[in-house]
């Protein structure tokens, strides 16, 4: 253990949840939640107030996180295909292992690695061989511990998988200490993803809690949005999942936050073990989520769409080597999920691959007023074609271009422009309002630059090549259809 600490190669633990909205912790302004260990991370570390998933759905987001690359370079998402071998070999676990780290993974892996789109195999089937410790499971995994084949030995003591993954992580840490190796554990929880099956030992935690609603809650708060935003599964799920009525809304939020409470408990198990082993002062903690969750905002349920509640997530980094002040350190600097891999490699002292789109966030831990990036895209090319869009953000504005048209239903390509700084709940679309010509022009330029990057560096396989045409603002719908149909 002493060599590990004296070598100054810090240990890394990356906690990653599934479907956790940014508005689920006190550090992000929610007075109703109970997350003591997540709160402790916020107290000790840096809270990222504007952290986004560049694709807000689990499969693509996880590939982004592992490889530090945007979706159009990974070629990986539902409806598209697996992650290519070339991209996987530039993932942070592979680089860490090559440099002498002991690497572990637990939870929902979420994507396959294959160059054969007809024979992709199970999620994690190939990747697991690059890890020293593996308690990952394919598909959506199960909240019942015994139904996850890598977790069966934990089933009797921890019947709910959230706590079981915490126990498995402790075993990995202990093994790493015995082997005297610096380690990186990536723990990708299933929670709070549906089905709604929280750990019953926490049934009383939110029994009497009435959760607040955000200012953009409800159908009326979505009437100003592009028609395309209502053409995916997010729109009916507002009612299907019970957000439309007070009683069912409160029930949904209680169970959702109970699942998150279970994650908090598991994080606590791991943090207490680090203290017990006296390695907490040389272990960096990263905490985030694979996408956000609407919970009724804009009259929507689920995730995917590029609005704040669908894409923005909590992000906290704790580096115990950095002296902490009395106040919670928050940064409003823009960051994205692709930045996590670059940050992990930077922590380990490994050169960041030139293919990465991500930037190291370590400078923000020293100075939260710094900026590591000027802009960030959000890519949505999953599900109903009508909801496909490309978004670009800078420190102040968000610009969305919806390409889809249907003349029979009077749906035309449209733009949305939101001032996230002054209008964080996206209640005013500025795209067609006077006096905003300059910011609109600026964001269109950033958008065009991002699309050019897609055209130059994006994969042509797995259906991604067509978006260079579909997302082109300067082409008519008829021109786009003619070109894409001729290419098929």
Rounded to an integer in angstroms, the radius of gyration calculated over CA atoms is 22 Å
- Average pLDDT confidence is 96
Order of helices and strands: HEHEEHHHHEEHEHHEHEEEHHEEEEHHH
In the sheet with the most strands, the strands line up as 5-4-6-1-7-8-2-9
Helix content: 25-40%
Euclidean distance between termini CA atoms = 59 Å
Describe the structure.
A hairpin with an 8-residue loop joins strand 11 and strand 12 (389-393). By secondary structure, the protein is α/β, with parallel strands linked by helices. The strands form three sheets. It has an eight-stranded mixed β-sheet with strand order 5-4-6-1-7-8-2-9, sandwiched between helices. It has a four-stranded antiparallel β-sheet with strand order 11-12-13-14, covered by helices on one side. Strands 3-10 form a two-stranded parallel sheet. Helix content is 31%, strand content 14%. The longest helix has 31 residues, at 246-276. The chain is built from 15 helices and 14 strands.
What labels would you give this structure?
488 residues, alpha/beta, 8-stranded mixed β-sheet, 4-stranded antiparallel β-sheet, 15 helices
What's the topology here?
Blueprint lengths: L1 H5 L4 E7 L18 H9 L1 E3 L2 E2 L5 H10 L3 H4 L10 H4 L3 H7 L3 E7 L24 E5 L23 H19 L3 E6 L45 H7 L5 H31 L6 E7 L18 H4 L3 E4 L10 E3 L3 E2 L2 H9 L14 H5 L9 E5 L8 E5 L3 E6 L11 E6 L17 H21 L9 H4 L6 H11 L1
Parallel strand pairs: 1-6, 1-7, 2-9, 3-10, 4-5, 4-6
Antiparallel strand pairs: 2-8, 7-8, 11-12, 12-13, 13-14
